[in-house]
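Notes from hallway chat w/ T.B., transcribed later so I don't forget. T.B. wanted the structure written out for a chain they're using in a teaching module, and asked if we could keep both sequence and structure tokens in one place. Agreed to drop them here.
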Amino acid sequence: MDNQNKKPSKLIRQERIVPSNDTVQENDKSSLERKQTSVSTPQPKQFNEKKGLNRNQVANVKISRRTKEEIDLLIKLTSHKFAYEVIESMIDNYVDNILDPDQRRAFKTLSSVLEN
């Protein structure tokens, strides 16, 4: 019988490698150093700059299907091209017509802080 064509009948045994104490301690030290550096210097999330996304494209808003269809209808009926334009004009209308003067002033102040 040819040994090359024969499938092994048992698992292939390999010698067990046992690290010495010196290498274990070095590996523990290096892993501790990596953990300490990652904990001591947290990196701020700058996903806008890394991905090159516009500030408007960062977050998603979950809305119902009916609301989405209504926004699409408003886009078709108005001169707006995008959903965010319709939403911005709705916010402007709400701020101007619904909020009282104190709420309007607070909204404008807080929104100006968010822009910076």
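Follow-up for T.B.: Residues 35-48 have pLDDT under 50 and may be disordered. Might be a good example for the class.
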